């Protein structure tokens, strides 16, 4: 199946992407891809380093005649988000990604594609392997665990790199040159509760919210996409208010940086109210579908009768929990006052688990302004603490402050305009790039981020545009050819 991918141009890049996608590489389980990348560098006879946390650094000398140019760090992350459609049978831990060509796009069969950030990794691999591409001295930096905490970038020590320019290949719009990004923090609310035996007069139902698009919880947070956890809570809140619905279990969402596509609950209702409950939830479901049909035309809400659960959540805890879920902000908190159309601060209610007497709600809060990030984090903390939850703030990482006087920015802006006949979009993004973290130990490094068009990242709808990859590849080659001296 991946043979057709290997025939795409530029072949050097797409072949390396196919090689990489044959290696399972979930976040926090990168042992195989680290070994793969280490072998790749050593087989090329290049200096290859694996640091203490698992980042791989491969150093390649400059081509003849370019030894006086500034050394360039080319950086991408090795891990990928693992998401699949409900009906897709796939073992991410042991299978390679199954890709196919769909017109001008490369997609995966029912799973995430790994173009984020596999296309960046493949780009660097192709340049390291080439004996023809002009380039200055290159330090290839392949970080781990970008998607679930950026621990690779955080663990990278100063002194391992000497480059004056860093090219981060993790932007997903080919007309954009990134000069800044948001920082983030995990907000996790937990508490225990007593379970009660379900009264005999109650019957069991399962409520499923599915068919949502999902997507990147930073880059797409402003698009009006449905959050399955918030939609499910509306249904649970309404059922409790009107029909005494009681919660037994909830399982919603998956990864902290993915907008939840699915969320399910097992509940119990009074048998005497069954007909009224079904009528009411159908009316509410249709109203929700109508609200978001433009962005979420495939939303499905299923309510099915099941065996009555033996245990249900304590009534007082349930009441507080559903109200906290209603009150907790999901989506955009504040738009930037300085950069047009940039989301400054947001939150994604990513994961909700209620089972066996334990509640856990996981959120990822992002902001390009540190004080605003902590303001929203404390807002969420207060919301959940009012219901008796313990709230942990963890995984804090900094944003990347734009430098509009960047020398490499000026070079790249000029080259982009010459190649494409139009100016690039120079912007900061509402996503977590590693530049801000790397800049803590390498504060003098001039940093830029760019990449090809990738849509639907962090979801099974992820796809990479073939024509855009060709455009991006030409841009990469011109940048390397025109790296200046003395940065």
Automatic annotation (TrEMBL):
Q: Does the keyword Hydrolase apply?
A: yes
Q: Which residues form the Peptidase M20 dimerisation domain?
A: 207-276
Is Hydrolase one of the keywords? Answer: yes
Instruction: Name the Gene3D superfamilies on file.
Output: Zn peptidases
Per its UniProt record, what Pfam families does this chain match? Answer: M20_dimer, Peptidase_M20
Sorted alphabetically, the keyword list is: Hydrolase
Q: Which segments cross the bilayer?
A: none
> Which InterPro entries is this protein grouped with?
Peptidase_M20, Peptidase_M20_dimer, Peptidase_M20C
The name under which this protein is listed is Aminoacyl-histidine dipeptidase
Originating species: Hyunsoonleella aestuarii
